[in-house]
Amino acid sequence: MIEGKFVRLREYKREDLEKARAFINNFEIKKNLILGIPFPLRVEDEIKWYEEINPHSEKSYSFAIELKEIEEYIGGCGIFNINWKNSFCEVGIFLGPEYLSKGYGAEAMKLLVNFIFTEMNLNKVRLSVFSFNKRAIRSYEKVGFKKEGVLREEIYRDGKYWDVIVMGILKREWFDDKRDENVL
């Protein structure tokens, strides 16, 4: 487990799946997560994903996000598209709607980024966020991510084309910020 002040990152448990599926099937959450059509996730799909989690993988890692005080599952985050040769990876995160705008996502992302730099020894973490997801962009900036580029009109949502913003943070930036601001 990776401990923060309010949240911890831990392994997924079978009892998390029903709540995770409910979060992901919430239209407001799902429209911020995938490029494709936000079609509901089936029970069978969630079980298959869970059964394929491999803690010894070199390709991806998934963490459940839990509120420490009450040991309640509130979302998930993960590391994927790991490029060991060039020393970077991508990350993603989601929280249940009732846990948004409380600082839990920023703290979980800080824990995840710190894990990547201190335990995986990668040099860069990047992510993609849809331009309409202003709350997520502010949260990522609070963690230390910087805008690296824009994929113009890459996603179609709510009858309109939107940009996808690519953001990243480097190991040296993380440790400079960590020294200056006591990030963790």
TrEMBL record:
Residues 7-163 form the N-acetyltransferase domain. Pfam families: Acetyltransf_3. Transmembrane segments: none annotated. Keywords: Transferase. GO terms for molecular function: acyltransferase activity, transferring groups other than amino-acyl groups. InterPro entries: Acyl_CoA_acyltransferase (IPR016181), GNAT_dom (IPR000182). This is GCN5-related N-acetyltransferase. It comes from Thermosipho melanesiensis (strain DSM 12029 / CIP 104789 / BI429).
